[in-house]
What we know:
Layout: H1 12-29, H2 44-51, E1 55-60, E2 63-68, E3 103-104, E4 113-119, H3 127-137, E5 142-145, H4 147-152, E6 165-168, H5 181-199, E7 205-206, H6 215-224, E8 227-229, E9 233-234, H7 237-240, H8 246-254, E10 259-264, H9 272-276, H10 278-287, E11 291-293, H11 295-300
Parallel strand pairs: 3-8, 4-5, 4-10, 4-11, 5-6, 7-8, 9-10
Antiparallel strand pairs: 1-2
Helix pairs in contact: 1-2, 5-6, 8-10
Amino acid sequence: MTAETDSERPPRSILKALITGVTTRQRGRGDDAPVDDQAQPTSRRSLLRAGGAGVAVGVVGGVAGIVAGDGLSAAEALPETPVSAAGVPSLGPWRPRPAHVDVSWAVDTTQKLVALTFDDGPMPNWTPMVHDILDDARIPATFFLIGRRVVRHARLIHGRMDRHAVGNHTWAHADMSRMSHAEAYRALSRAHAAITEVTGKEPAILRPPLGNIGGTTLSAAGKMGYHVVLWSLKMREAALRHPAGRLVDYIVDSCEPGTILLAHDTGHRDRLVSIRGLPAMIRGLRAKGFEFVTVPELLEATGSAPPDA
Length: 309
């Protein structure tokens, strides 16, 4: 390796700009390196101005280097990272209790257990119908509730949640993958308080609306002490509504031990297909030896239940 001569070294102004830019980008990337809060990001354009036309910036082995190359256009600039991508919401020390967040699509188990879940309620149109079916079959389910709907329609679930589990589905069903940490935490904490007050059960699990997750979804879930629960199988009403019984066969044939099954107790009229077919699905799964459990009970099957479930 040859020694670098003075003529080959980049001007100090370029190195200073490069180091400032890399340090600032580290903060957006979530690196652990110390960050100067006052440092301003250095754009590619300003860096090129500092070094002259035809200069590209590279970092090799942690050493900043300047190599000759074509100039970069504005169209080639990296897109700005959304605030919602940040998994750590603070530049200072930050640690939720517990210091981890689990995310489950299903549960690894050999036991024939399935967790039936309903999103987006309670609402007057179908929530009572779902509860009637579950009561007749004497099976538990897990309801991921929207906070403001719980407040508005509390009467629909009074006295009907004894065998069921509750989960947080945010205050107003906004997309959590687009929220800041503060917005995500507020959406969860407001819903948490409403669900606890109305049902008498404190949620320990979260399903983000649409199943969309950002870094701030995880940081807010961590602050709440939540286990994030998605799904491994969902009702495909629009695709399988005809002929009659097609959706029932699909669900019964697709269930595996540890399945988390997504359904809704409100929404587009297509979803009525799954609710009307629910009794047949329950019978079909029972005939195959499946037992219905709540999500917290399913998570306990592998010892991965949330702390207070």
